[in-house]
Amino acid sequence: MTKLDIRDLVIAHDKKTILSDITLTDFAPGSVIGVLGPNGVGKSSFLRSLAGLAPYGGSIAYDGDENRKLSHNQRARKVAYLPQTLPQATNLVAYEAVISACRAVRHDLSHQHVENLTERVFDRLNIRHIAFQTLNRMSGGQRQMVGLAQIIVREPDIMLLDEPTSALDLRWQLGVLDVVRTLVKDKQGLALIALHDINLAMRHCDSLILFGEGGVLSTGTPHVAMTPDILKRAYQVSGRLEICSQGSPFVIVDGLHHTHGD
Amino acid sequence: MRETSTGAAHAAPSLSRQYRHFVFKRIFWLCVFLIALIVSFVANVMTGPAMLSFWDVVGGILDPETLSGAMRVIVFDVRLPFAVLAILIGATLGLAGAELQTVLNNPLASPSTLGIMHAATLGASFAIVFQLDQYGIPENYIVPIFAFGGALCAIFLIQMLAGFYGATIDTVVLFGIALVFALDALVSLIQFVADTDSLQQIVFWTMGSLARASWEKIVIVGAVFLCCIPFSIRHIWKMTALRGGEDYAKSYGVSVERLRMLVLLRVGVLTAVAVSFTGVIGFVGLVGPHIARLAFGEDHRYYIPGSILAGAFILSAASLTSKSIVPGIMIPDGIVTALIGIPLFLALLLSQKRRG
Fold first, then answer.
1. ipTM of this predicted structure
2. Which of B8, B14, B298 sits opposite A90 (nearest CB)?
3. Which residues cross the membrane (chain B) (predicted)?
4. Most A CBs within 10 Å, among B3, B106, B252, to test the A interface
């Protein structure tokens, strides 16, 4: 497994600081972590910095190696990042897209081995039926599944997924989160998932990182990290935390929160 | 989710086997392209003021002793260099166009639409008008070197533009049009100061023609083409991965900026060597990749050879046409490819617009 340490991280966009003072260490191996926060708070930028695609201040270290000093190739052996955009609608068939994602940099793997990995990922995600369809004839959801297959085919230690379920219906959302969880458990790795759906995150993540007010608002297991007060500060909504009949916490939003001046 | 799939997985044949079945069709089409290319090649050697029979050509190539002296001169000194150069230049432009379209993620990119070809022409004209071959390097080498210099400048500009504004379809194509106009004006300026001899040579170029084919030129173009192939093969998976989008490719560990620079350099070399010996032959590098994409998809293991074959076939067929329209007169090939290519280019442009 790969160890991730984030210290004093600062993320800026067009010279404007959007997140600062982020220190996150001691991630429990094998856990799925939800990255939450309102639109534009910097969830995507945070994941892009972790993926080495955006500059950052402070320190992000994988196994003690500073992220910005790693080459794309070195980083790709430990970390995989799923962009928020869907893969381009090209003439490639899904099978080729996944194979090429693996073979582009892993010259050390035999073709047979790559074929086996690809076979496994199509089974894991249950998308064998679209393996020989071209991406330009797929629905958005199907393309998102192919994108995910391209990312997890290498079975990375750390997965950074930016809204991996944005184009999926309920059944596939749960399926994807299940697969990610299994993979993370098997590898004793780590998955950081940016999500918009708070309840999906509460239900499926081991812990949450909630961004707001230019930094980390709260972290911890879902029922610790998410409180009515935090909800108010992060999203400017008033809501309640209820416990469902099976004992899991969930959020009910009552309405917009109006500050006292209004 | 996993439980439902494992049962099916054992019953169905493995994906790799299904895939081999799937690509069989592509390999079949590659063979069809190859046969079409050979047919056009033989027809090209047969056609001319002195018509040769099919058996004259095939027998003559396999065993030159069967031909009479005059026939041997016609086949080996006139027809073959012409037909071989057509295939080589077509293949070179097909490869350059295919790689350019992938690396700029732009289906309208090609050496001619982006002005790379015209920049190379400017470099070549410069070498001719100022007779740089008098300084010890033979013309067959100094002209390509200067053409490459010109192509390099255009590539540098495109790279900068892509860096600042992103290589979107509209930006790059509009930029290409501006570049083509500017470079045409500069070539005209050089023509203005040129003496009669060089002027004739430059005019010949701007029209694009295979008429001055020679074995030495074939060896140079062939050598450059073969030198580029191993690099293309080396990048074949990275280029396929890049089709998913830049962010995805980076996420797999592809250093996209480096890849783009290396490929653009390669495109510059290929374009320069093609332009140096035949002048501006447009649209082969644009249409070839599109045909390949339709027939072979975008896995570069099939797309690249497909585009090479398609490019070679287009130029081979165009040169055959250029000889056949008016018997006894060879219309410059650049004019033929432009007349066939421009409607296709417009069709592509409009279909892109419709797709939004």
1. 0.87
2. B298
3. 27-46, 78-96, 108-129, 141-165, 172-194, 214-233, 263-287, 334-351
4. B252
Residue pair A131/A93 in contact (Cβ under 8 Å)? The answer is: yes
Consecutive 10-residue averages of pLDDT for chain B (356 residues): 45 83 91 95 86 81 80 85 94 95 87 89 87 76 88 87 70 83 89 84 80 88 95 94 89 87 92 88 89 90 95 93 82 85 78 64
Predicted model pTM = 0.89
Q: Minimal Cα distance from A148: which residue of B?
A: B248
| CATH code of the domain occupying B26-355 | 1.10.3470.10
Diameter over CA atoms, chain B: 80
State the smallest CA–CA distance between residue B298 and chain A in angstroms: 5
**Domain A1-78+156-215 maps to which CATH number in 3.40.50.300, 1.10.357.10, 3.30.2020.10, 3.90.1150.10?**
3.40.50.300
Closest-CA distance, B222 to chain A, in angstroms, reads: 28
Dist CA B116 CA B151 (whole Å): 5
Looking at beta carbons, which residues of chain A come within 8 Å of B295?
A: none
Q: Is B6 on the interface with A (CB under 8 A)?
A: yes
Structural domain boundaries of chain B? 26-355
- A33: β partners: A192, A207
Give me B74's structure tokens.
């016609």
